[in-house]
């Protein structure tokens, strides 16, 4: 059973989605085997499908997006070498130092505007061919869409320009595509057009796509064979995981195109807030399912705003002292969006309690 949400609109994160009855039925019907022995047919089917969708040879199912990213990172960067990415990237900011702790990798970052990827930023930070004198850059990380940047869709042209530079300099590229399908739906760029520009790509099934658990890493057959070993070493070898893969297959069949609904609801709410409180949302920044609201421009701290919205049944997330993030997903429909718009516009218009 899907328990009713205690919130009128839960905009905390798109990781909150709960599997629908239909998805649960698909999970219950899944044919399974022991995946550590490579014998789970549903998992094999999911891996083959995702590899094909992203234009790669092979794939590996992982329990989380963080594990998929960390397996990708470890493939390309040896201990003592570095990865580079923007300072808001999930890999450097929100995986709790995993690259350093698990793989002995250091990270350097450039500043970006809302996580927007620019080939020049990567090229100017990259250090190669410096022998034993400096840390060598082995990997560039790109995140698409960009979570902490506010759902920013990356430009394929910029990615291609970076690919030319990295190819020349022997540096690998990994795409954190936790929300790659949001980027695809918003931009119309086929997912494999993004996918083919990278050595490895991770995608998440458990965010906007609505599966309860699971991510997939794609790359060459050799790279995935090596990642399979490291996944087991990291404790991520799973047994009858076809139950989870069935949810992923269901999500790919039913929940990709509907991401456009989340984007439309996010935009509708953003427009209402921008009209109610001019300056609090820059509409040009609302590209997908994430809206960042500058509540400080209306005299609020993010903590006070989050509490006030919660008291009226709308859960949001403070992403800085004066900014609040709202994320649309499968479990927030038009009615939930109406409530969110009512509550949030009223709060933005009113002065916070002293
Ligand atoms: C961009 C991005 N990458 C990776 C992850 C990690 O996913 P997980 O929570 O499954 O480890 C997240 C999670 O929110 C994310 O937003």
Automatic annotation (TrEMBL):
InterPro entries linked to this entry: ArAA_b-elim_lyase/Thr_aldolase (IPR001597), Low_specificity_L-TA-like (IPR023603), PyrdxlP-dep_Trfase (IPR015424), PyrdxlP-dep_Trfase_major (IPR015421), PyrdxlP-dep_Trfase_small (IPR015422)
Q: Which domain of life is it from?
A: Bacteria
Domain called Aromatic amino acid beta-eliminating lyase/threonine aldolase: residue spans: 10-295
- Keywords, A to Z? Pyridoxal phosphate
Cofactor(s) the protein needs? pyridoxal 5'-phosphate
Q: Which family does it belong to?
A: Belongs to the threonine aldolase family.
This chain's protein is named GntG family PLP-dependent aldolase
The species is Terrabacter ginsenosidimutans
Give the taxonomic lineage as stored in the record.
Bacteria, Bacillati, Actinomycetota, Actinomycetes, Micrococcales
């Amino acid at each position: 059973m899907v328990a009713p949400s205690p919130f009128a609109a839960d905009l905390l994160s798109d990781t909150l989605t709960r599997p629908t009855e239909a998805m649960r039925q698909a999970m219950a019907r899944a044919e399974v085997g022991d995946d550590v022995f490579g014998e789970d047919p549903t998992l094999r089917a999911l891996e083959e499908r995702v590899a094909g969708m992203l234009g790669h040879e092979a794939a590996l199912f992982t329990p989380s997006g963080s594990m998929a990213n960390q397996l990708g990172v470890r493939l390309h960067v040896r201990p003592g070498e570095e990865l580079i990415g923007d300072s808001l990237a999930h890999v450097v900011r929100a995986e709790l130092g995993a690259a350093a702790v698990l793989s002995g990798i250091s990270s350097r970052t450039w500043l970006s505007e809302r996580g927007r990827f620019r080939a020049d930023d990567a090229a100017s930070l990259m250090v190669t061919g410096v022998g034993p004198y400096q840390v060598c850059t082995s990997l560039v990380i790109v995140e698409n869409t960009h979570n902490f940047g506010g759902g920013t869709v990356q430009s394929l042209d910029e990615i291609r320009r970076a690919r030319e530079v990295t190819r020349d300099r022997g540096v690998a590229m990994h795409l954190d595509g936790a929300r790659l399908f949001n980027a695809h739906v918003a931009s119309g760029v086929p997912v494999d057009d993004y996918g083919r520009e990278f050595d490895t790509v991770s995608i998440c099934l458990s965010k906007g796509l609505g599966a309860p658990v699971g991510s997939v890493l794609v790359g060459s057959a050799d790279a995935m064979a090596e990642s399979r070993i490291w996944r087991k070493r990291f404790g991520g070898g799973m047994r009858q995981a076809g139950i989870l893969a069935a949810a992923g297959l269901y999500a790919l069949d039913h929940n990709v195109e509907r991401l456009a609904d989340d984007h439309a609801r996010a935009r509708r709410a953003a427009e209402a807030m921008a009209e109610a409180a001019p300056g609090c949302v820059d509409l040009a920044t609302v590209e997908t399912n994430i809206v960042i609201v500058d509540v400080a421009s209306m005299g609020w701290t993010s903590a006070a705003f989050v509490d006030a919205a919660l008291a009226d049944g709308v859960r949001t997330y403070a992403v800085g002292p004066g900014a609040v993030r709202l994320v649309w997903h499968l479990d927030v429909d038009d009615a939930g969006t109406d409530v969110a718009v009512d509550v949030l516009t009223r709060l933005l218009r009113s002065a916070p309690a002293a």
